[in-house]
Specification:
Belongs to the FliM family. By secondary structure, this protein is of the alpha+beta class. Helices cover 36% and strands 25% of the residues. It contains nine helices and ten strands. A hairpin with a 2-residue loop joins strand 5 and strand 6 (209-218). The longest helix is centred in the first third of the chain and has 26 residues, at 49-74. The radius of gyration is 34 Å and the shape is elongated.
Amino acid sequence: MSEILSQSEIDALLAALSSGEMNAEELKKEEEIKKVKVYDFKRALRFSKDQIRSLTRLHENFARLLTTYFSAQLRTFVQITVVSVDQLPYDEFIRSIPKMTILNIFEAQPLEGRMVLEVNPNITYAMLDRLLGGSGNAPNKIANLTEIESMIMEKMFIRVLDNFKEAWKNIIDLKPKLEVMEMNPQFMQIVSPNETVAVISLSTKIGDTTGMINLCLPHVVLEPVMHKLSAHHWFAGQKKVESADYDNLKKRIQYASLPIKIELGTSMIRVSDLIQLKVGDVIQLDKQVSEPLKAFVGETPKYYVQPGLTKGKLAVQIINLVEEGVNMDE
């Protein structure tokens, strides 16, 4: 993909050409020279673009689930969005996160290996402040969590892993389990330093506090399901789920109970006559004996029927459907 220039860079380039500082012929020669792209074998690209797109879609759903969950738990405005999905060496990921942060190390059977959910301390302390009755402001100084604070946050992040399971259910049925919550990245070694990991960065806003939540997924852990992250498999899986949901809905509707009533006819009488009605009185309806009756399903007219008897019991025979805009009474 060619590099895209900003408007200021374009203006500077045109000014240089106009002043003679740059020669258009030299630029053409440079274009003709074969460009060499540097490839760093320590930063091996193990995830294809297609797989990165699938991971993005997966975790956009994860971000929506987290937004709903945190909003309900913290009772405040929460906004979580995916800002990037990158692949980089694990050592580079460790260097990129703060020296003092919240690291939730977890497993997700049947996948083998460990993954990490890193939560910026600002976000963690804002959550704690809300859970303990505060307004959700993060302290200026970040310190180690107390035992009580650690227990509160562990329970919170265990439920976060339930949302992670929900987001991945179309790919694989996971059973995530929180192993340990750590604060120093130097004590966390889940894979070798040069192992490629996918890092999903979630921009998080809780009230007036902002920060990042990073999800680190090693390639070696995801390798058994990498083939399922292709676009073809993703959309095929989505169609299967939609088809299964449709079939289940269809079965439930088939067994639903609906009231059916037959309207013999209508009549208008005075209230005084209604009060004086007694056994044996006759009320004249607006229907002829030979006219079909209307059968209602719920409150909707559905069929034209003919009354009669079958095996000594009252019954009706369906003779036509009630079509919108058509009235057989007329």
